[in-house]
Amino acid sequence: MLVVNRFRVPEVDRDVFRVDLETARQVLASRTGHLGSQIGRNLDDPTLWVLTTTWENVGAYRRALSSYDVKMGAVPLLSRAVEEPSAYEVVEPGTVLNVESTRSLG
């Protein structure tokens, strides 16, 4: 699964934000199920930043978010992300897509 977190950061806060974002990326990267991550900044609008992370599955991502280290080292920064859906399923040829429906607990 792919997670895309976008951030709006005033230029005056750029350097501090960049350090905080790298710290958050490293904390997430230390969790089981993390496959990779990247930080980017928009070429046309330098106040727009992105953190993308790739995970084995949604469970690995959710377990990472609930860990103490991530709650302390990444969640405060992630809470500053642009409010929009951030979790995506990876779609490759032949992939069976997730079906939006109510799931049974029993």
Automatic annotation (TrEMBL):
Keywords, comma-separated and alphabetical: Monooxygenase, Oxidoreductase
Domain ABM, first and last residues per copy: 1-91
Native organism taxonomy: Bacteria, Bacillati, Actinomycetota, Actinomycetes, Propionibacteriales
Pfam families to which the protein is assigned, alphabetical: ABM
Protein name from the UniProt record: Antibiotic biosynthesis monooxygenase
Source species, domain of life: Bacteria
Entry's Gene Ontology molecular function annotations: monooxygenase activity
Organism from which the protein derives: Nocardioides psychrotolerans
InterPro entries, alphabetized: ABM_dom, Dimeric_a/b-barrel
SUPFAM superfamilies, per database record: Dimeric alpha+beta barrel (SSF54909)
